[in-house]
Amino acid sequence: MTPTPERVYSEAEITAKITETGLTGWYLEDGWLRRKYNTDGWPQTLMAVNAIGYLCEAAYHHADLSVTYAKLWVKLKTHSAGGITDKDFDLARKIEDVVLWRPAGGALGTGSPQKFVFSRS
Predict the structure, then answer these.
(1) Residues 6 or more apart whose Cβ sits within 8 Å of residue 11
(2) CATH 2.40.50.140 fits 27-102, yes or no
C-alpha cells in the first residue's frame, strides 16, 4: 500500500497557521519555517542545540540549524513532501515549548537566575 502524501501548505496557509498555532517568532522565508533564538552565550546556545537535536531525533524529523555564540537559527521543512507540512508545525511547537520552558514555582522554584534563551528576535 502506498502511503498518502503529506499535505503541503501554501504560503498564505503557512502564515495563517503560524498565527493560529501561537508560534510567535516563527516565520516563513525561502520555503522554510524559521525561528531565531537569542541566548545568554555559548553554553546556553549549546544546551538549546542539544535539546532541539533530541526532539528532532525522537520525532525522526530533522531541523537545519545555524549556530553562533549567542544565536541559534532553526529551519524546518518536510523534504519528502517538498514543503511545509503538519510535521513542521508540530516540531516547531515542541521546540518552542522546550527551549523557552522555565519553572513556574513548585519544587523547582523559579529555576535558574539566568535566562537561557530569549523569546524576542
Answers:
(1) 28
(2) no
Helix (H) or strand (E) holding 19: helix 11-20
Query: What is the per-residue pLDDT for 119?
Result: 67
CA distance 38 to 25: 11
Q: Are 8 and 84 in contact (CB under 8 A)?
A: yes
Closest CA relative to residue 33, chosen from 65, 99, 77, 72 = 77
Alpha carbons within 13 A on the beta-carbon side of 45? 17
Sign of CA dihedral 48, 50, 53, 54: negative
What is the structure's pLDDT at 104?
A: 85
What is the value of pTM for the model shown? 0.90
